[in-house]
Structure formats: structure tokens, C-alpha cells
From TrEMBL:
GO molecular function: transferase activity
Superkingdom of this protein's organism: Bacteria
Enzyme Commission code(s) on record: 2.8.2.-
EC class: transferase
Pfam families named among the record's database cross-references: Sulfotransfer_4
Keyword match Transferase: yes
Stretches of the chain forming a coiled coil according to its record: none
Protein name (record): Sulfotransferase family protein
Length: 166
């Protein structure tokens, strides 16, 4: 199972469901926080190099959330029999949620417990990959900001076109 949805679209819930249904373990952004060495699996992408998907996803049977969901097309090429799961969310709520998440990204506070500081340092190491994803997906973020007032009909149109982009 390959996740194709943006973060903040229920990917953690789908991860839990996939694992409960026997498609686990499921690779999710949370895995990087728990396994800082996984950053090295993703860094070649920031340089435009192809990823070795068997190495990147070693030990996992499914994916959800970034960074994996950004590369869903590449995964489909390597795993053509896999099913693709697209998670979506109301564009208004998604935009507010993403803005809140992005706004919380700051320097490591000096009084942060070491466990939390380690996670933030790991995410900082992943920044080249996240920046790559952000640049490529900026068109979608701009579209959401400009068209959020159009309501759920636009979201349904986007969902249908995203599902057909294979």
C-alpha cells in the first residue's frame, strides 16, 4: 500500500489502520523521528538522485505521509502491483493545519528535553528533502490558498484529478 496523500490528511490514522489490517509496519514521517538514521535513506533525493526503494523502505510493507507520499509515482514504478491510497481533507482545514504545523518549526529551545531536541535535530537534517518537496508542491499550496473560498466542490475536483494522475 502506497500513500499518496499530503500530510495532515489523516495519514497517521491510515497508518494505524494499515498496520491493524496486516499491511505493517507502515512508513510514516514519525518513523524518522524514531529512527534518525533514516534521514540518510532520503538525502539522495535532495540531490536529484533516484532512491533505492528497497533500501529506503527496508522493513516496511506500506507507506503514508511525507516524505514517502511525495514519491508515490516513483514507488508505483518499482512496486506496480501495490495499491495507492489517496487521503484528502477539506482544503480550508488542511491549510490551517499545515500553517499551524509550519509555524511551530523553530530553533531548538535550550530547555527542551534531550529526546525532543534529538527529534528536532533529525528533522533539521531532513530539511533538504522537505525543501525539495515544498518547492515541487508549492503550486498546490498556492492553489489551496487562492481557491479555498470555492468550497468542497473544488476539493472533490482536485481529489478526482489527483486519483487519475498515474
Amino acid at each position: 500500500m502506497i500513500g499518496a496523500g499530503f500530510p495532515r490528511t489523516g495519514t497517521r490514522s491510515v497508518k494505524a489502520a494499515l498496520e491493524r489490517l496486516g499491511f505493517g509496519p507502515c512508513y510514516h514521517m514519525a518513523e524518522i523521528g524514531s529512527n534518525p538514521d533514516h534521514v540518510d535513506r532520503w538525502l539522495p533525493a535532495a540531490s536529484g538522485l533516484p532512491l533505492d526503494w528497497d533500501s529506503v523502505l527496508d522493513g516496511y510493507r506500506s507507506t503514508q505521509d511525507w516524505p514517502a507520499s511525495f514519491f508515490w509515482r516513483e514507488q508505483v514504478e518499482v512496486y506496480p502491483d501495490a495499491k495507492v491510497v489517496l487521503t484528502v481533507r477539506d482544503p480550508h482545514r488542511w491549510y490551517v493545519s499545515m500553517q499551524a504545523l509550519i509555524a511551530t518549526r523553530r530553533d531548538v529551545p535550550p530547555d527542551l528535553p534531550e529526546t525532543g531536541a534529538a527529534v528536532l535535530r533529525t528533522m533539521e537534517r531532513l530539511r533538504p528533502v522537505l525543501d525539495l518537496i515544498g518547492e515541487r508542491d508549492r503550486w498546490w499550496q498556492v492553489a489551496v490558498a487562492q481557491r479555498a473560498h470555492c468550497g468542497t466542490a473544488w476539493c472533490a475536483d482536485w481529489s478526482n484529478s489527483a486519483m487519475m494522475c498515474t
